[in-house]
Design goal:
The protein is of the alpha/beta class. It is 42% helix and 13% strand. The chain contains 13 helices and twelve strands. β5, α6 and β6 form a beta-alpha-beta unit. The longest helix has 22 residues. The structure holds pyridoxal-5'-phosphate. The site of pyridoxal-5'-phosphate (PLP) has 15 residues, from α3.
């Protein structure tokens, strides 16, 4: 039985081109990019070429890209680094109630330990932040706004360009967590109007443990990791050259046929949604159907536990998710699904299917059939189902 992987929001398989570029880097570019001899210079050259490529995907200048250990570190650097650099101007931060823990937790730490106040904006039933609510939340002492580009659970794409205009007109540093969007939809820093943008390599068919933070030139931000002054003092630590080369190869590939892939993947996603919604009663789509990542489908099922669905599908060789991977071991309802107004039992009946580059039409057919048959059999056993 060939396994089907449809959990690309959790992580993606590395592209063959990425593996090839990294293998070459592991073998040939082993030098320390800070060393002055030839192996060091070769590593430095690979690093700077990679920086150019990553910058290209987001429409930035190479010197505005800083490599990190991944999305979590990029978010921490953006939030904590900007907060600490701007604390003399104020201690108020605005974010949203549906951010990834990599944003929410550094915000909580700043509240608990550094005397900051954080406003967590609510979202609509579709999972959208309202720009009017953002404007209303801004105070004299607001120094940072952080709104994710698209949500990792329900795929909702936020009005970042509009929020960016608001932030810019008030002189407030603006961060977006673009971990789920870079390489999946256009995410150019000037179109979005952001000062800071987080990237994670493993979400776009690159290796795990590598990422980047875009920092617009002139943005007030302080490092949070100290040491030998790598990445122009913004992030100390010997650069992971093979990982960074892998991220750059992944960025280049993703940028090459972004529009075609968006159309192909959203077509498969919509077909899958329609197939299940037509055949299984009391089923709905969580999040917006239009302002949504092309690869994300989050289905809600009454009278069924999402975990049970996931495990039955796994037994059939199909990998999907019930929420974000980081929270899938907890039994609490997803904070994103409760933020869009689902009751805990509704939130527990959700299934996140995130398609990707290697998925095919035949796989979509198999997954659709499997979901319908598993949902029917679980419903037949459910003590909660309608009489
Ligand atoms: N932000 C979002 C929206 C994510 O989906 C994730 C990963 O799930 C992260 C941040 C963390 O990225 P990383 O796994 O590279 O630390």
């Amino acid at each position: 039985m060939k396994r089907i992987y449809m959990d690309h929001a959790a992580t993606t398989p590395m592209a063959p081109e990425v593996i090839e570029a990294m293998t070459k880097a592991f073998v040939e570019i082993f030098g320390n990019a800070s060393s002055l001899h030839q192996p060091g210079l070769a590593a430095r050259a690979a690093l700077e070429e990679a920086r150019e490529r990553v910058a290209g995907l987001i429409g930035a200048k190479a010197e505005e890209v800083y490599f990190t250990s991944g999305g979590t570190e990029s978010d921490n650097l953006a939030i904590r680094g900007a907060a600490l650099a701007n604390r003399d101007r104020g201690r108020h931060i605005i974010t949203t109630s549906i951010e990834h823990p990599a944003v929410l937790e550094p915000c909580r730490k700043l509240e608990e330990e550094e005397g900051f106040e954080v406003t967590y904006l609510p979202v609509t039933r579709e999972g959208l932040v309202e720009v009017e609510a953002l404007e209303a939340a801004i105070r004299e002492d607001t120094i940072l706004i952080s709104i994710m580009h698209a949500n990792n659970e329900i795929g909702t794409i936020q009005p970042i360009a509009e929020a960016g205009e608001v932030a810019r007109s008030r002189g407030i540093v603006f961060h977006t967590d673009a971990v789920q969007t870079v390489g999946k939809i256009p995410a150019k820093v000037d179109d979005l109007g952001v000062d800071l943008l987080s990237i994670s390599s493993h979400k776009l068919h690159g290796p795990k443990g590598v990422g980047a933070l875009y920092i617009r030139k002139g943005t007030a931000i302080k490092p949070i990791v100290f040491g030998g002054g790598h990445e122009r003092g913004m992030r100390s630590g010997t650069e992971n050259v093979p990982g960074i080369v892998g991220l750059a190869a992944a960025a280049e590939l993703a940028g090459r046929n972004l529009e075609e892939e968006m159309a192909r993947i959203s077509g498969m996603r919509d077909r899958l949604a329609d197939y299940v919604l037509e055949r299984v009663e009391d089923t709905w789509v969580n999040g917006s159907r239009t302002k949504r990542l092309p690869n994300n489908l989050n289905l809600g099922f009454s009278y069924i536990e999402g975990e049970a669905l996931l495990l039955r599908l796994d037994a059939k060789g199909i990998a999907v998710s019930t929420g974000s991977a980081c929270s899938s071991k907890k039994t609490v309802a997803s904070h994103v699904l409760t933020a869009i107004g689902l009751r805990p039992q509704e939130a527990h009946g959700s299934l996140r299917i995130t398609l990707g580059r290697e998925n095919t039409d035949e796989e979509v057919d198999r997954v659709g059939e499997a979901i319908v048959s598993v949902a029917e059999s679980l419903r037949a056993m459910s003590p909660f189902r309608k009489a």
